Amino acid sequence: MEDIKVGQIVGRASYDCDVMFRIHRIKGNEVELHGEEIRLIADAPLDDLIILEDEDRKERKKKDKLKEESCYHLFRQERKLIREKNEFDMTAGYTKKNNHFEMPGKVLHIDGDPIYLKKCTQVYDKLGVPVYGVHLAEKEISTQVASLVEMIRPDLLVITGHDAYSSSKGNLDDLKAYRHSKHFADAVKEARKVVPYMDHLMIFAGACQSHFQSILKSGANFASSPERVNIHALDPVYLVSKISMTPFNERIGMWEILKTTISGEKGLGGLESYGSLRRGFPNYSPQVKEE
Description:
Blueprint: E1 9-12, E2 21-27, E3 30-35, E4 41-45, E5 49-51, H1 54-90, E6 101-103, E7 107-111, H2 114-127, E8 131-135, H3 141-152, E9 156-160, H4 181-194, E10 202-205, H5 212-217, E11 222-223, H6 235-244, E12 251-252, H7 254-258, E13 269-270, E14 273-274, E15 278-280
Parallel strand pairs: 7-8, 7-9, 9-10, 10-11
Antiparallel strand pairs: 1-2, 1-5, 2-3, 3-4, 6-15, 11-13, 12-14
Helix pairs in contact: 3-4
InterPro entries: Peptidase_U57 (IPR008764)
Organism: Salipaludibacillus neizhouensis
Protein name: Sporulation peptidase YabG
């Protein structure tokens, strides 16, 4: 077998290489794996790993890219409709040139995976959502989230990384059977000590197969994973971006929020919410007079 190294892209033979993983850590004969496109963490013995060929990886990435682009275009279409409605409201239906400006809700995105964090912040920028990104290991988020919320003062908070359910450690209701769900729930509780009201700080927390109910009970507006399925790396981005780009006085049902995500209602869920975008008038741009 070829030498296995940290950072290589592999699959698990025992699972027919159904998921692309990135090798995160090697300890003896055991390897810690992080999903390359989904927020899953897994352990595997060295002899169960297969290094994926370039062609296989390219084909998988191509299929994933199509899913991402589909979500992006749907989001842009939704955004266009909302903007047209906003312009109509701000001008009272008149056809004169619109002169208002918009302030989308600000996102604090805390991610246990630095590679995913970079990918997510690129998509936020592409969507026009203001974001402050922080990489912290899942176990450390609860110790620093309060100070980060106080410093950044976001409208929306994302707490994510990698997670997994292990049936060998307990049943679906047992929080101890999940790799990082307790850490996510604890982080939400700490954030709620700073901003207790759900409409003042909207929180998404969770990753693949996370304990949905416990995270919601800890104070999150949205969480994963209702059916303990894997979620895509970009799902948290599209979920909170929908809130960020919707006017603060408009209520959004969960279906409206989830339809621009990749995983949908099996992987994500939560409570109906209000948007966090605010509109202003006029859009003033000072003109520099020539001497």
